[in-house]
Amino acid sequence: MDEGDGEPQDFIRICTEKLSTEEVSQLVVSPSCGAVSIFVGTTRNNFEGKKVVHLEYDAYVPMAEAEIKKILADIRKRWPSVKHMAVYHRLGLVPTTEASVVIAISSPHRDDSLDAVKFCINTLKATVPIWKKEVYEEEGSTWKENKECFWKKQ
Asked: Which residues are annotated as a binding site?
């Protein structure tokens, strides 16, 4: 029974503010769903023996939002039971331990939301024009290319 649950909703936000996992997860809560699956990508303090101070993200926001919409539409085709979805990505400086991306998806049962979250982050990293620069304590910085990027495979 769907008591006032409403139509499925998608929430996309690309911003420079600190991300709240609680805020994003609450967007997808639904009385008809027993599962809310969440992925939180955070800045780690190391990469290949180098101490990472922070990450810096940049994006072509209109294209990034359009690509995320395509991912969410694809999820709805693959997992029709998915109810609400939220993808928030932070731009600018992201210190270690803070979230750069939060994805939350609800569904009646856990398998669909878990599978959809994994598909979402993997596809986002491969197709969405968001760029990351790692800033190191001693050795400057490096713009990073996701190994999943479709243009890298060509």
From this structure: 109-110, 125, 132-134
Pure H helices in 37-109: 61-78
CA–CA dist 15, 9 (Å, integer): 19
- Under a CB-based contact definition with an 8 Å cutoff, are residues 19 and 90 in contact? yes
Within 8 A by CB and 6+ apart from 9, the residues are 27, 84, 85
Q: What count of residues does the chain have?
A: 154
Are 54 and 95 in contact by the 8 Å Cβ rule? The answer is yes
Going by the annotation, the residues of the binding site for substrate are: 109-110, 125, 132-134
Residue type, 25: S
Query: To which residue do tokens 């996309």 refer?
Result: 12
Angstrom CA distances, 128 to 33, 83, 86, stand at 28, 23, 15
**What are the tens digits of pLDDT across the range 115-145?**
999 999 999 999 999 999 999 987 777 776 6
Please report the pLDDT score of residue 125 as a whole number.
95
The stretch 37-57 carries a mean pLDDT of 94
What pTM did the predictor assign?
0.90
Q: How far apart are CA 91 and CA 39, in angstroms?
A: 17
